[in-house]
Amino acid sequence: MLTAVRPLLSSRTNMSLLGQARRHTVKALNSTSSSSSSSLAQQQQRLFATSFGRAQAKTTSQAPILKPSASVRSIPPALPNKTIKSILTTTAPDTVVKVQGWIRSTRHQKHVTFVEVNDGSSLKGVQAILNGGQGKGLVAGTSVELEGTLVKSLGKEQALELQVSNMKIIGSCDAETYPLQKKRHSFEFLREISHLRSRAKTASAILRLRSASAWGFQKFFESQEFVQVHTPLLTTHDCEGGGEVFKIAPRISARAQQQHEEKKGSSQESLSASSSSSGPAPSEFFGSPVYLTVSGQLHLEIIASALSRVYTMGPVFRAEPSMTPRHLSEFWMLEAEVAFLDKLDHLLDFSEACLRETTRYLLENCSEDIEFLNTWIDKSLKQRLTQLVEEPFKRMTYTEAVEILQKSGEKFEFEPKWGQGLQSEHEKWLAGSYCKGPVFVTDYPAGLKPFYMRKNDASVVASSAGGSEDRTTVGCVDLLVPGIGELMGGSLREERPEVLKQQLLAFGLGEEEYQWYMDLRKYGTVPHGGWGIGFERYLLMVTGMDNVRDIIPFPRYNNHCKF
User: Could you say which EC number(s) this protein's record lists (predicted)?
Assistant: First the structure.
């Protein structure tokens, strides 16, 4: 049984939307130093109208929401022991329970010992009280199993605590050398002991948010009827065209090499036999150059031509020697591809909904960890995440962005100029100082983007032309967010075979090598588009952290690859 619920738009709702759009767009933009310019004032009014129009359209044209009448079946516990989080949230006081975890801190008094035990399922863990000599010799880092009665706590820090009756030490800890003590540690120090840093409060909070973020994205895609695809890590193509890729070569053992040399030296006949049976040369195991993937987009396009709505999430690799806090050699990407998508605005609406709903999921389900990070890492974190969820994203074209930057009066290290890429300083100023929130920048010059992005139609090209300069643009978008800069990049894909063929020639790419890509246009081509989000950059945004190496469990970057 399904029931349909259709939202109604009243005059009061209309006024609310009007006030919200005016309050969050015009007021924010008018506060910038560039507001005195009449052309920028017109730009601000256009952004306001766009924000209000989108908010109104979403409310009035929303499809009926189908709600299942039956509740979803819950999966029963499959393990014998409960986590500390489950015990504290589902167990009534005066119940005998068993707790397993690591001691985070101890406080010894004359006749009693207080220990905080944590198993990673929640931020604070549980306070356990051991009477008499039970707690003698217990130190931070020790793994224990405690059995006792869960009682109401007299302290203000926790609602429940464990009155221990039996204790078992599972693994002892050397207190003299254990590096995690009850004090604040710098992130630089924690990176040096990355095999233990997940026991620290900040690191464990980030890991839980990382897990919840992945689940939040998956829930969103499931709600939009997407199919998850596992794209390969090994590829023959450099999707982004930057050339910063890792090439694959097999490692041949000394024994295998010796056997190969023995066969070579026996006779010309055996050499011929061995060459036919020993496989390709070590440098080309697959018969042609193969690289670690930088993106799963091209593979997603293959599957989208059959399943329509697909996404993938997995590690990608870039041989980029940059040592900035924003770059890694191995990181995770969330990528989506949608068939039958012919308008860039629809792609923007979809990506905005994805980010808003996933962030909303975190605010609703990870409040304890977000509150902790808001207190100790970034005191504006909750405000920014709430703003992202509640306020529409701003939108502007690349051409408009360059004009705003040029008239801003700001002293940038790199002068903003049409035809050149936006630098990090430009992106951060646009999102942080000018828009004061997320902003989509669309329609970049074709010369700045990869071959697969769809060239804009003649009317769009004409509207952005200036002088004799070639101002051909492509239907693409970068999402800029405060403090980070670029978070997401996407585009409509070139579905016209003749235009794509010209693009391959212009970029010096062999048509034969990309024949399979042309075939997707030859056999039932459809307009389509997609985007990719750097998962670690999203985590920087939702945690308030500054360095990407602190929000991935095992960071890999230039001259660093441990474990």
Answer: 6.1.1.22
Q: Which two tokens stand for residue 55?
A: 């908010």
Let me know: does 473 contact 485? Beta carbons within 8 Å: no
Residues in the chain: 563
- Segment 264-277, tens digit of pLDDT: 666 455 444 444 44
In terms of phi and psi (left: phi > 0; alpha: psi -120 to 50; beta: otherwise), the region of 309 is beta
Q: Scanning the structure block, which residue is given the tokens 């996933």? A: 358
CA distance 200 to 206: 10
Q: How far apart are the C-alpha atoms of 75 and 300, rounded to whole Å?
A: 32
Q: Are 317 and 330 in contact (CB under 8 A)?
A: yes
Residues 428 and 401: beta-carbon distance below 8 Å: no
Q: Is the dihedral of CA 417, 420, 421, 424 positive or negative?
A: negative
The least confident of 53-67, 172-186, 340-354, 496-510 is 53-67
Strands 2-5 and 65-68: antiparallel
**Structure tokens belonging to residue 108:** 């010894």
CA 275 – CA 286 distance, rounded (Å)? 15
Give the closest residue to 196 by CA, choosing from 492, 488, 554: 554
pLDDT of amino acid 313: 98
Which of helix, strand or coil describes residue 86?
Answer: helix
